[in-house]
Amino acid sequence: MEPDADRPGARVPEARGASRWAQTPRWVRVFAVVGAVVVLAVVVMLLTGHGPGRHMNHGLGMTGHVPW
Amino acid sequence: MRPPLRRLMLVAHIGFSVGWLGAVAGSLALSVIGLVARDPAVVRAVYLVLEPVGWSTLVPLSFASLLTGLVQAWGTRWGLIRHYWVLIKLVMNVFATTILLLYMQTLGYLAGLARTAVADGPAGDLRSPSPVAHAAAAIVLLLTALVLSVYKPRGETSWVRPAGTRRGSAPVRGQAA
Fold first, then answer.
1. Which of A8, A42, A55 sits opposite B170 (nearest CB)?
2. What is the pTM of this model?
3. Which residues pair with B156 in a beta bridge?
């Protein structure tokens, strides 16, 4: 269970030097990290030619290779 | 929003979102059939039908889910960027809709291959794990959004004033999906 600091309206005391990231609920941090990894993977795939545009210049039925 | 309209929009948002999940589940089933079916005619039929299924159900339902979700967020005191779970659902919805629109090109490509394939020829070249992977990933994403909607995990962003300092009362759980 998350601490009471995650309750709506609850305010985490301003710790000296504490970043906004540290005050963010843990589940949100997990979502942010996983989401960033997924988005990065998608961007890398698109940039390396595994995106949907790969087949656009080949015409239909020429390669039989599915782009992604 | 007045309560009757709010409930109507909530019903619409849940309906479109769950409908989207169901349409993806149907597409996943079709994709698996296309991957494992022995009859080449069935394989070709699967890849021919995946594209129109996408345009007629997946795309409209994704946009309907997004739009009704925005209405729910703006029309209730949950707000769009006030609570992390709402904000994360918005990001996930936009991400999924974008990927879906991009992937429709691939489904069109597969449909083209199936359309030009020899009627009685082998279907080996048509088989692709890509639709299975994308549909499975979409189901994971939509189920995650569903869990967020039901559990509404705590946590407010610091980008807006707390609900208690605004006019009116704090949000009531169940007002947004």
1. A8
2. 0.79
3. B83
Encoded amino acid at B133, one letter: A
B58-69 pLDDT, tens digit each? 999 999 999 999
Report ipTM for this prediction: 0.71
For chain A, list residues with pLDDT below 70.
1-18, 51-68
The distance from CA A2 to its chain's CA centroid, rounded to whole angstroms, is 22
| Residue A9 CB partners (closer than 8 Å, separation 6+) | B156, B162, B163, B164, B170
The one-letter code for the residue type at B130 is: S
How near does any CA of chain A get to the CA of B147, in Å? 13
The contact set of B with A (CB < 8 A) is 83-84, 88, 91-92, 95, 99, 102-103, 105-106, 109-110, 112-113, 115-117, 125-126, 128, 130, 153-156, 158, 162-164, 170-171
Query: Is B127 a residue whose pLDDT tops 60?
Result: yes
Query: Quick one: angle between helices B84-116 and A26-47, nearest 10?
Result: 30
User: Cα(B62)–Cα(B27) distance, rounded to whole angstroms?
Assistant: 14
Residues of chain B with Cβ-Cβ distance to A68 below 8 Å are 103, 106, 130
- Closest by CA position to B96, among listed B73, B62, B68: B62
What pLDDT is recorded for position A12? 45
Report whether B72 contacts B176 (CB < 8 A): yes
> What is the per-residue pLDDT for B98?
94
